[in-house]
Design a protein that fits this description.
This protein is of the alpha+beta class and 176 residues long. Helices cover 21% and strands 26% of the residues.
């Protein structure tokens, strides 16, 4: 009995417990994500709305996100990002093919549209993408894409929806 731990009906050596615990934690952690963050944000203005689903946003915004998030030669495509509260790839350990991003919230103020999402991997990041999409435009213009803290998403969104445009001023991150 020395060096073993008795489990219900069988024995497991103490040396095997560590790797078993790690595999169990990884298997549960990747797919069993916590619910999406709840961030309240009051964007001032008469012409505003918010969306709890990426599918409710204009197809041109979704297409631009897809274009920027595409990975060349990545094999079988996974969805652009997981819906709110859905399972997603929280860690960098791939157990099953899940999206590496998850939608948090989207909204509009005038012709400015914003998308909040989180990405997993080695670091858990919160992203804000802001687009300008006037009624007559066929495609959106990216105003900003930044990574910020969860508790700053609203403040940064309020500020950046007022920016005239970014061009190459450093407000468009390379990592989507």
């Amino acid at each position: 009995m020395r060096g073993t731990v008795r489990w219900w009906t069988g024995r497991v050596s103490r040396r095997a417990l560590g790797p078993l615990a790690i595999v169990a934690a990884i298997s549960v952690g990747a797919a069993a994500a916590e619910p999406s963050p709840q961030v309240s944000c009051n964007i001032a203005g008469n012409d505003t709305s918010s969306f709890a689903s990426l599918d409710a946003m204009p197809p041109a915004i979704v297409a631009e996100l897809g274009r920027r998030m595409a990975v060349a030669g990545a094999g079988a495509p996974t969805p652009l990002m997981a819906p709110r509260d859905a399972a997603w790839q929280v860690t960098d350990v791939v157990v099953e093919p899940l999206p590496g991003r998850r939608f948090i919230l989207g909204g509009r103020t005038g012709s400015r549209w914003y998308v909040w999402y989180e990405s997993g991997g080695v670091a858990h990041l919160y992203h804000l993408a802001i687009f300008d999409l006037p009624d007559a435009a066929a495609a959106p213009t990216v105003i900003a894409h930044v990574i910020t803290r969860l508790d700053e998403l609203c403040v940064v969104t309020r500020a950046l929806t007022q920016v005239a445009g970014s061009g190459d001023e450093g407000l468009i991150g390379k990592f989507w």
